Records
---
Amino acid sequence: MKPSHITIKDIARILGVSPSTVSRALKDHPDISEETRNLVKTFAEKVKYRPNALALSLRKQKTNTLGLIIPEIVHHFFSSVISGMEDLAYGEGYHMMICQSNENYYREVINTQALLDHRVDGLLVSISKTTKEFNHLQTAIDNGTPVVFFDRICDEIETDRVITDDFEGARVATEHLIECGCKKILHLAAPKHLLIGKKRYEGYCHALKSHNIEIKEEFTLKCDTREEVLTMRQHLLDIAPEIDGVFAVNDSTAIAIMQVLQQNGYKIPDQIKVIGFGDGPNATIASPPLSTVEQKGYEMGREAVRMLIQRLENPTAPINYQTKIITPTLKKRSST
Amino acid sequence: MKPSHITIKDIARILGVSPSTVSRALKDHPDISEETRNLVKTFAEKVKYRPNALALSLRKQKTNTLGLIIPEIVHHFFSSVISGMEDLAYGEGYHMMICQSNENYYREVINTQALLDHRVDGLLVSISKTTKEFNHLQTAIDNGTPVVFFDRICDEIETDRVITDDFEGARVATEHLIECGCKKILHLAAPKHLLIGKKRYEGYCHALKSHNIEIKEEFTLKCDTREEVLTMRQHLLDIAPEIDGVFAVNDSTAIAIMQVLQQNGYKIPDQIKVIGFGDGPNATIASPPLSTVEQKGYEMGREAVRMLIQRLENPTAPINYQTKIITPTLKKRSST
DNA sequence: TTGAAAGCGCTAACAG
DNA sequence: CTGTTAGCGCTTTCAA
């Protein structure tokens, strides 16, 4: 940043008025003669004067900047979230300072600190997988910087949150299979100790129960990556003759099992129907295009920013924290 | 940002010394007694003092912030770029302010302005598709804010750039098909007026020529999206019997044609080999996994930041702008 | 209607 | 070794 930026002082000096006059003229302060105002405004325009946001922030004690801490940028869901955040923030006159924790607790702490050092007005955070301690965030809140959690929330801290309704998404997906005529549905699940694993499993069970379908233990397999599908290939093929539907905890797992089944002569969706969860870009590329449950990252991002700005602009409002639940919607394609 | 942040002045008052003493003690200035230094440092630590980055920036005329303008965050390539940028910037003590132009010229201009208002030390930009005018960026450079272009560069502005070697990538891909025994290679191309379309076409031709394979005009088809493949389905199937290889300008097109061919009984790679360009996450999910040319977004991001910081930290160095060309590498999988 | 002065938080030149 | 002062760019009393 070269000193070549023109300042209010420069304008004042050149025009032979005081800096305060310039400042007032520029922002249409009432106590200013129209003459001076025009003079100043015209000149400012001519020399392309732009206020220094740093100085403004320092003075106003408000940066109009939102800090974001995200586990991984390269991930369709998270990048959609960022996109939604950026779009809304931009529209509301805020900017985003973005840090990625790379799923590393230590880095998450440093990032938080750095964002606070920059005096961001608020924080948007999705906690990293390795984070077990939340002092860094609690402290931020205690010191007056509001935090909104999204997706990977932290139960121990009371604040605003936006999450996906995993239970409901899974329920809808399973229900859809049932409506398509499936009675023997395999669930490829994430580990139960992960919240999403647990919730999606529960949604699956709920749907079965409400249709009086027996929940067989052997029909839920811990298998949540493409690689795992390939490793378990034989076991999956052994089960295949006994099933007519698969609900996989994510799209890549769903696609992988579709492929394994197809390679072994199963017709999809005729013999076995498959549904995933997440609706990343792969779902449409799969063959047949994969039915799935859309996770709405963009909307989640917007919502988180909306809640944060809401808090920022009503600092005196009574603090009653909200948890906004985003219900994923069924995307019916050709695999079911 | 509540005023509850402790400042140097607060510490000075409490400890009964002057602010400058505190400032000096904190940064291990030589002219300070060990006693005072320890006193100050211990106290600062106790009250968790953190310097205000805004004040620092204003004072030092340096923000340690890099501005990024990117067409779309939700895009595997671009999000990889951001990730690479963020990682390196973070390591070098810089932060990133990110704006997306959404392929909109007007918004790109506003974003540039906003970042300059925030006095970012430098700009990283990939221009939007609708940008035909570059004054906003030229002005930035003229006023002393260095700019590094990446991926979507602008020829009219002289500055540092990082680009992918599209010609070479296409050449290597085509060459690979030839080495696998293909002699009749179809090229699904992007429009010639796009730089990547042109360069990749040229690379394809070059490979053919150097192996004395005739370049048939009817073997290059403008077709660069999945949808287009489906639209041209019949035409592609008409040509299919005459070809033994396909080089598609991007992965999704490659995957789409693989699927069309497979649905019509062609065995891949036995009868027809297919290679793509880009190596997004789809490539591995395709069946068979798609051979492709890896575009290295992460590396491109790092490189762009490296060049920018280099410039920032050697302001007096002679300005000789560099163009760094990143050569994509062949990812051989099972479709060839 | 305008200007002078103080201050946001920090540093650095200059005194002492 | 430490304090005083001025100033980064801006706004906002307070006085005139």
---
Amino acid sequence: MSETKQRRTYDPTDLEHRWQERWAESGLYKTDEDENKPKHYALTMLPYPSGDLHVGHWYPMTPSDTRARFMRMNGFRVFFPIGFDAFGLPAENAAIGRGIPPRDWTYSNIERMRGQLRQMGAMFDFDSEVVTCDPEYYRWNQWFFLKFFERGLAYRMEAPVDWCPKDNTTLAREQVVGPDKRCERCGTPVIKKNLPQWLFKITDYAEELLDFSKIDWPERVETLQRNWIGRSEGAEIRFEIEGYGPVEVFTTRPDTLFGATFFVMSPEHPAIEAITTPEQSEEVRAYVERAAKMSEIDRTDVTREKTGVFTGAYAINPANGEEIPVYIADYVLMGYGTGAIMAVPAHDERDFEFAKKYGIEIRTVIAPPDWNGEDLDEAYAGEGTMVNSNECDGTPSTEGKEKVTAWLEERGAGKATVTYRLHDWLISRQRFWGTPIPIIFCDECGIVPVPEEDLPVLLPEDTEFMPTGESPLKLDPGFYNTECPRCGGPATRETDTMDTFMDSSWYWYRYLSPHYDRGPFDPERGEKWLPVDQYTGGIEHAILHLLYARFFTKVMRDLGLVDFDEPMTRLRNQGNILGPDGQKMSKSRGNVVNPQEYVDRFGSDALRCFLMFIGPWNEGGPWDGKGIEGVSRWLRRALSLVTGGVSSGGEADPSELPRRTNRLVKKITDDLGAFRFNTAIAALMEHTNYLLAVRGREEWHEALRTFVTVLSPFAPHHAEEMWAAMGEDYSVHEQAWPGYEEALIQASEITLIVQVNGKLRDRIEAPADISEETAKELALSSARVRPHLEGKELRKSIYVPGRLVNLVVG
RNA sequence: GCGAGAGUGGUGGAAUGGUAGACACGCUAGAUUUAGGAUCUAGUGCCUCACGGCGUGCGGGUUCAAAUCCCGCCUCUCGCACCA
């Protein structure tokens, strides 16, 4: 066969289509339910149906598939489902901008993406697909909401939300864009506005969420979650404000209490109006107003000079009875602690800056080591010895924390407490394309949950969208007018829908039984498959999605739905695949790489393998499509091992065949276990080159079988084609993963490295079991080595068995 | 500012105390009696005709031996950022 002809015969697209059809016909990827095998639930994050799969989807999914296949070949029954995270803003924007109903837009995108997913050649079990905007799915979102509500985990309160004054609507977090926080649609800077909102009490689980002992997750994700939860131990201290009453502060440094020379409240603090004296009220009101108008970005700009105003009020320091002035200042945030602080300028950088500016006393109460009694040039936040603190003088500050807290507790002026940065999860969205919150407002009965049997509360079908983006549910009497389930009187429905993170907080449970109608999932199926053994997805979900997922599972445990504490035993993150410009891939930047053109030209195996080959999977990196040609060449060469056509004149030792085959199996086994896809592919390439060079030997056919078997998780179509061409029984994907013998991997011959003073001087071929003595003799007698020893004394020699001799001379 | 990670050929990367640059891309030369965005062969870190020397961000250290371990610095990326 001529080379030209061979090139024409290599048509990866045709080959892949053939096998995809065969796989579908034969049900090859139907989930194996054989309970004699250990289970493996492999989960990859479900995509948002934006319209087309891009390489940002291929990058996490195909290596996850490779690993799922590997587990299957290792004797596990593997469940590897896929679905669509189908609620969300883009669908609504399509409706507003182009008049396409969100449902139509979403389902047509899903239809297209289903085909693209199949093209990937992954072993997804498409029978268990879940689409989160199906009433069949979101009904259970509503059910969960009701369960949360019953347990007091869902509650309604006034909460500040991002509000676009032009569109006259609130915005979801992800709709607020840019460093200066503007509305995604119209570019208007957003403001904060108080609205009644539904929240989930995730803070009840803050402490438990800090415990990662039951899961094997990347250190980085744990750290991010830990920081996000932001646990701080300290004390709540009660300061009496003259003529008003007690106001509490939170501090992590009760030991500095004697140094509190002023008191600061956030401009949003509810007590401000009551404590402000008439003389100061004008100034205070102006400051509060200015703070309210200020954009979030200005407000939280760390480099801005501290500002504040005196309220005219004084607070009494419970430690020493001193009167200290009460200020309001925007560097104190209402959203953390109690919204008020005791200011200790000597030992807090921010308080120091403020005190300097307003001429407030800076009293050192923690002596730094080697302190000479002079005033501090800057705040000292470290530990030291307590001074100027009455009976506490001389106490180390580390002990002082407890001592002061205990003292306060005795007098009812404070207590030890723990504060979290984590806030309750605000789930209300003033949006259409989401799960309706199953709540009814009745003038007589108040807030009434929709009875379980009335679920789901369906989204209306024919809806008109306002160009302003305001949720049509608010303007749809057919939707919101209803009867009170309790008293039967006229009532209105909640028109807010749920945050889409709700959908992704439990979807892997639904995969188990997507049409089950007696609960969110069939407990028998859960028994068989839960929890998820291996989750894969992007690091960008380290906090929100993955924290909510853990929270949900803990609540589900408390509801008796599951009997474990963590949703996913093991998590691994891929890095981000960036655009060719090194920037994050996004439609607006125009740097999105469409996998289709690569699939059409090189086939999906080539794209899969290329994505695994470009570098460590957890690092990601910019896309450079050129290299895919090398991978494509390799696959063609691999295929030619069976079909012929590619010749190789390279020289290789055929007797190495068993050793190299064993070594390959070990390498691929180890690499796949550790998510090192890039080095696994490199080893497969190397082995292909070797097999080509020694083609046709006695043991060759058996070695080829092994090679094709270990190739199959990476390039499933090509491996299947080769398997069939070798006359083996369908399918290679049902073969057992080959084992290897450690003993066979050892080479009989080694290259002995000879160094002189650590520098490489010669390489000598020697038997692997060479003795130290012989090795040294060989080294000393080497012609390349001798010149470097001349006139010098051999002081020492190091022998590393099977590797090297280092001669130390001087 | 705080926290985490990373710096290796022209490029992606490999090597986690013992042969630096595996495997690829690209490039150079040759073969395929036409062509080449095909294929095959050989070469390809830098300097040097060669012997050899130099070389993993920079500076120091530990060691017989350092990309790898330790100390200091620089640069980049990603989080968080007035959290009391």
